[in-house]
Amino acid sequence: MTIETIETEFRQKVGESVRLAGEGLNRYRVFTPFLFEDGDHLAVVLKREHGRWVLSDEGHTYMHLTYDLDEKDLQRGTRQKLITNALSVFSVEDVDGELRLRIPDEQYGDGLFSFIQALLKISDVSYLSRERVKSTFLEDFRSFIEATVPGDRRVFDWFDAPHDPEGKYTVDCRINGMQKPIMVFALPRDDRVRDAHISLLQFEQWSIPHRSLAIFEDQEDVNRKVLARFTDVCEKQFSSLGANKTRIAAYLSEAMRA
To answer: pLDDT tens digits for 156-175?
Structure first.
């Protein structure tokens, strides 16, 4: 398979903004729209080893985490469990700190998609290092939806069972009863925005009819680059819940009549 064909498969599965840049013989830098919380791009390299293609971060993900964490903290406790789980779920290997995924059976697009998700899940361990004031945003969101949308028109924590039996791509609430259901995402932090971005891209790949709505805890707190990429795939957004309840209720009321 040619490198042009591989690049096309990457774009079809992950997004049209994916591109490859040659860095020598059988080695390519993979540029994707996905970022760490601080705005740095994920480091992904495609290289050919022993007759097959491999995706690698070349140790960058762990190095990035150690800007804020001690390396030993990644090897114990909850952080270590989260990392191990992400590696297992997405079939990624940890080879002396280098994260690698051998492309399975020429499934290049699927391989890149899984590799990106593994890197993002692992990067989320940085949230465990911070003290956060407990937010009632998610509880407030659920209460608001319950008061606004009839029970027979909503499903919380929805996922598409036929395509996604393990529930990897979840939606905070799916509003039913229209030709195109509304996928509603409650977004308190950058990691939730990234997860919603990935879910919407996957729904596009599966050709699942839908409209999308994002409700932020505070949109101003979201990393600008993360937000810009999410905006490309999300149809409607509200910058906060508290100040927009009347507008959101009016939007949903009109949408449910469509």
So the answer is: 999 999 999 999 999 999 99
Mind listing the domains of the chain with CATH numbers? 3-129 (3.30.1460), 137-256 (3.40.1350)
CA 253 to each of CA 53, 91, 147: distance values in angstroms, whole numbers, following the listed order: 50, 43, 12
Name, in order, each residue with C-beta under 8 angstroms of 206's C-beta and a sequence gap of 6 or more.
160, 163
**Token match 């977004």: residue?**
187
For the entire predicted model, the pTM comes to 0.60
Count, in order, helices (H) and strands (E) of the chain. Answer: 8, 11
- CA distances to 10, 22, 41, 188, 209 from 30, rounded to whole Å, are 9, 9, 10, 29, 30
Amino acid at 221: D
At 41-96, the pLDDT tens digits run 899 999 999 889 999 999 999 999 888 777 877 887 778 888 999 999 999 999 99
Q: Tell me which DSSP letter residue 242 carries.
A: G
